[in-house]
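Hi support team,

I've been running sequence recovery on a batch of backbones for a student project. Most finish fine, but this one hangs at about 90% for roughly twenty minutes before it completes. I'm not sure whether the input is malformed or the queue is just slow. I've pasted the structure tokens below so you can try to reproduce it. Let me know if you need the job ID as well.

Thanks,
M.K.
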């Protein structure tokens, strides 16, 4: 189902990278205003026991968690999870949270100081408030996050904001919508997955993300998988910003021509090449059956049996769909376990 040339071309696009499994939304007990239950010094051992490579620690209203003695770059991704109310939103409930992930911990204080609305008191022990924003000002905040090398996510969107219009949940392309929330099969996940696919349907270019957010000790129930060059936040963040990562505990490497997941290119006369593998132990069961679906727009174009124990390679014509993406299912449990981000068709966007 794939030629040697196609396989070598895809391998070359990911050469020098290796797989990392981790968590993009968590909280620790770091003192101050943190509300996690597990002290940061306990996280490294617990993460390694779960075979997790990283966790984004996003404690609330402060920056002190990133300056604890136990903080390890690469094992932890710096950032925070504030809340806000979008004053001119069309939503019935205008409240939401948002996750800011950054490549370096010092970038958060710089960002907070650029927006006086936060009333940031400064320093490692500094605190900040949760200001309300207009959509325009909130967009300026997102732009600033990106300018600091960061990644912006709208977490648990349907669990706070209430609207029948999916556009109310969108603020910028190139940002994340949390799809897997707490676990792969929660009722929240079902709602948030439907929201993400609605956003894709109306032409928004947003990435599916995952987050556990249990405020307890580390869990492996809502993982992210990416291929990066090194075990460092500054290596993860470019993958997240480019959309070249998987919402879920399975590795997906894919490209149309030389355009990787998350990018945009012309599909005409090109082929989609895919490699599915690197199952995390949380979903790897040799007795189960697994498959990968190639989805073009809203239609399943191809289904392929995949193995949890070795890479599965395949290709197909890129076709004329507005976008292409890959999902992985545990057929034995009838459960979606991984959502790859799309590649968009430049011609369909014109």
């Amino acid at each position: 189902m794939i030629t040697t040339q196609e396989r070598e071309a895809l391998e070359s696009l990911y050469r020098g990278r290796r797989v990392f499994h981790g968590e993009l939304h968590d909280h620790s007990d770091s003192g101050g205003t943190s509300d996690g239950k597990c002290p940061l010094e306990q996280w490294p051992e617990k993460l390694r026991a779960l075979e997790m490579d990283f966790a984004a620690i996003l404690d609330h209203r402060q920056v002190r968690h990133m300056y604890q003695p136990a903080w390890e770059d690469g094992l932890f991704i710096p950032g925070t999870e504030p809340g806000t109310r979008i004053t001119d939103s069309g939503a019935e409930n205008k409240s939401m949270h948002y996750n800011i992930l950054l490549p370096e911990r010092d970038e958060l204080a710089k960002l907070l100081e650029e927006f006086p609305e936060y009333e940031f008191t400064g320093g490692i022990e500094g605190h900040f408030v949760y200001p309300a924003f207009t959509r325009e000002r909130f967009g300026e905040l997102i732009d600033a996050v990106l300018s600091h090398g960061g990644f912006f996510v709208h977490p648990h969107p349907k669990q706070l904001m209430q609207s029948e219009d999916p556009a109310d949940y969108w603020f910028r392309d190139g940002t994340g919508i949390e799809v897997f929330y707490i676990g792969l099969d929660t009722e929240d996940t079902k709602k948030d997955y439907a929201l993400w696919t609605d956003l894709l349907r109306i032409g928004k270019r947003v990435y599916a993300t995952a987050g556990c957010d249990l405020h307890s000790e580390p869990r492996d129930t809502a993982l992210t998988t990416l291929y990066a060059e090194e075990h460092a936040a500054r290596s993860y963040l470019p993958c997240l910003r480019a959309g070249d990562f998987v919402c879920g505990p399975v590795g997906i490497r894919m490209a149309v021509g030389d355009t990787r997941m998350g990018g945009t290119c012309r599909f005409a006369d090109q082929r989609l090449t895919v490699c599915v593998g690197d199952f995390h132990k949380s979903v790897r069961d040799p007795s189960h059956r697994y498959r990968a679906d190639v989805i073009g727009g809203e239609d399943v174009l191809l289904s392929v049996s995949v193995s949890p124990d070795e890479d599965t390679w395949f290709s197909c014509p890129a076709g004329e769909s507005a976008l292409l993406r890959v999902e992985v299912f545990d057929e034995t449990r009838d459960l979606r376990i991984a959502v790859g981000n799309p590649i968009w068709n430049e011609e369909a966007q014109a």
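--
Follow-up from support: It reproduced on our side and the slowdown came from queue contention, not your input. The helical segments are 4-13, 43-49, 106-114, 135-147, 157-160, 187-201, 233-242, 346-349. No action needed from you.
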